[in-house]
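I'm curious: can you give me some protein's one-letter sequence along with its backbone structure tokens because I've never seen that pairing?
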Amino acid sequence: EIEAAKEILCLGDTSPPPERHVGTNLGNRKRKCSEADMQTLYPQVLWTPSVDNPPNDKKATSPRRPLSAYNLFFSEERVRILQALEEISSSDYDEDGLPNPQKLEEVLSRQEKENKDHLGPSTA
């Protein structure tokens, strides 16, 4: 595998650009990389997973970073707006296919009122 990687990655042209050597064979010189070149230039090719370092399953399943309060709020708001859009009839959309903002606000405020009624009076 390493030899194949060397062949693919290290057989680069090390001579000046070919236009300087028109009509000669000088523009076609190639060189092979040494093991040291491979270690410094292409360490990812030589890396192999070891038994001592198993992959971390937690990293694969968890998000890159925790959700912020902003993201949590708008994920809930998005669900609420999508539910409101389902309640709006097709006659409440304009010619561009967008919902009437007044109708959408009316449905959202009604949902909010129903939600407050469902939770009961606040204990403030």
